[in-house]
Automatic annotation (TrEMBL):
Family statement: Belongs to the peptidase S8 family.
PANTHER family: PROPROTEIN CONVERTASE SUBTILISIN/KEXIN
Entry's Gene Ontology cellular component terms: extracellular region
Highest taxon of the lineage: Eukaryota
A Gene Ontology molecular function term of the record: serine-type endopeptidase activity
A biological process term (GO) from this entry: proteolysis
Name under which the protein is recorded: Subtilisin-like protease
């Protein structure tokens, strides 16, 4: 069997185990093979179509890598647009790992073959990679919260491939975007020593739910105790959850200028007497300011706040249309680089 990708699966090849001799080809190769079969079929069987599967062994040094798999989950966040999703990406394509010998490698009941190893793909493979990294970070930093661990993974992630170019989206062959990879591809070594982390407390999450217009009765289903929304007003809006990324959504409604702000708090987990300076890479066409532009930490564990203001001008959009631009806020002390994605979405309402 020749299993050809559809157009939306692009050129990414998933090494599925089959119960008959089979090979996978990309969408372009599949189209070529179908043309060849059609042409050969018209030749009155003088040269029938033939093919050979040739195993060429393990390929090393594949370029470009990594790429965003065609099946990888994409943003934006459908429920809370103020929170950028995905957070990060991790290895999830053609993962080689141990396999139980009581289950055939294809998973089909009639498959009686036995093997100690198998290759699988999917979020179910990326998730254990990130779970393992979280466990590693917790072992090195037992006092870190889940939010601090997530922050370390996000702010140290990378977005370039082994060619030094922006990562590609396997499904389109084009450059991937922040809604494909979030903060980027996880980088275990850097995540162990991120310099700064964006931590989140229980009350921060409650304020986020309050500002997302959930009722106290609904919030209590999650918190299992009486919910207090009195601090939500001080928090400002849902986008002020102390997340390592920032996402602004502007509904144009005929406005020429729009603005919003984000309040963030970072905790020093690097060295005492560290001074971090900010580098702003604003989304195209936006004005972004950060106050203060320098954070001076006297001790480890110290928390400091900063304010990000985003100003945007209306863009021409058709009803129901949207425009998405991305940039970043980067804090650095010369040793650590703490990067937060910044996404601005302009939307033209249908009913305006």
């Amino acid at each position: 069997m020749i299993l050809a990708n559809g157009i939306f699966d692009g050129e990414g090849l998933v090494a599925d185990c089959h119960v008959l001799p089979a090979t996978a080809v990309g969408a372009i190769g599949g189209d070529e093979i179908r043309r060849y079969i059609a042409t050969a079929a018209k030749s009155n069987h003088t040269s029938p179509p033939t093919a050979t599967i040739m195993f060429k062994g393990t390929r090393l040094g594949v370029r470009p890598a990594p790429v965003v798999a065609s099946f990888s989950a994409r943003g934006p966040n459908p429920v809370s647009t103020e929170i950028l999703k995905p957070d990060v990406i991790a290895p999830g394509l053609n993962i080689l790992a141990a396999w139980p010998d009581r289950v055939g490698p294809s998973g089909v009941p009639s498959d009686k073959r036995k093997t100690e190893f198998n290759i699988l793909s999917g979020t179910s493979m990326a998730c254990p990679h990130v779970s393992g990294l979280a466990a590693l970070l917790k072992a090195v930093h037992p006092d870190w919260s889940p939010a601090a661990i997530r922050s370390a993974l996000m702010t140290t992630a990378y977005v370039v491939d082994n060619r030094g170019h922006a990562m590609l989206d396997e499904s389109t062959g084009n450059v991937s975007s922040v809604f494909d990879y979030g903060a980027g591809h996880v980088h275990p070594e850097k995540a162990i020593d991120p310099g700064l982390v964006y931590d989140i407390s229980d009350s921060d999450y409650v304020n986020f739910l309050c500002n997302s217009n959930y009722t106290t009765d609904t919030i209590q289903v999650i918190t299992r105790k009486k919910a207090d929304c009195s601090g939500a007003k001080k928090a400002g809006h849902a986008g002020n959850l102390n997340y390592p990324s920032m996402s602004a959504v502007f509904q144009q409604y005929g406005k020429k200028k729009m603005s919003t702000h984000f309040i963030r708090s970072v905790t020093n987990v690097g060295e005492a007497n560290s001074v971090y300076k900010v580098t702003i890479k604003p989304p195209v066409g936006m004005k972004v300011t950060v106050e203060p532009q320098t954070l001076s930490f006297r001790r480890v564990g110290q928390k400091l706040n900063f304010l990000v203001r985003v100003q945007a001008r209306a863009v021409k959009l058709s009803p129901g249309g949207s425009s998405i631009k991305s940039g970043s806020i980067v804090w650095s002390d010369g040793k650590h680089t703490v990067t937060s994605p910044l996404v601005v979405t302009m939307q033209q309402p249908l009913d305006y």
